[in-house]
Amino acid sequence: MAETSTRAWMRPHDWAEVVLGVVAVLSFLWVDTDNAVMWTMIVLGALIALDGLLSLAMPGLVYGEGLQIVLGALLFISPWVMSYTDLTAASWSAWIIGGLTAIAGAAALPVANASHGRMAGQH
């Protein structure tokens, strides 16, 4: 796993973040939403997926994993902040995807730190 964590496009945590972001973006296709909920899920999902892609391309980029934790937390609290807890499927989608995104970011943080440390010694 140590070698995998330093190679671009090989970290499973970041692939999970990309998949979770895409699922959030597309979730309006299978859950009832209104316009604000749909765009909340699309924007946060796109940011999650894009940050996951950036982390895949640049495995030593530590701040990307921290950003994933923040984005996951934002998606998790969005049903309360955007007042759509009455839309049960959309709320559960945000809670599950947001929670899994934060967990994936937290799990990838030590791997990114180790990768960053190895890459810093190469300069």
What is the overall shape? elongated
Q: Could you tell me the radius of gyration in angstroms? A: 15 Å
Counted beta strands: 0
Portion of residues in beta strands equals under 5%
Element pattern in H and E: HHHHH
CA distance, first residue to last residue: 23 Å
Q: Could you estimate the helical fraction of the residues in percent? A: over 70%
Low-confidence stretches: none
What is the tally of helical segments? 5
User: Total domains, how many?
Assistant: 1
Quickly give the structural class: mainly alpha
Roughly what is the average pLDDT, rounded to an integer? Answer: 87
Q: How would a textbook summarize the main sheet? A: none
Task: Quickly describe the structure.
The protein is mostly helical and 123 residues long. The protein is 78% helix and 0% strand.
Describe the structure.
The protein has 123 residues and is mostly helical. The chain has one domain. The protein is 78% helix and 0% strand. It is built from 5 helices and no strands. InterPro entries: SPW (IPR005530). Keywords: Membrane, Transmembrane, Transmembrane helix. Pfam families: SPW.
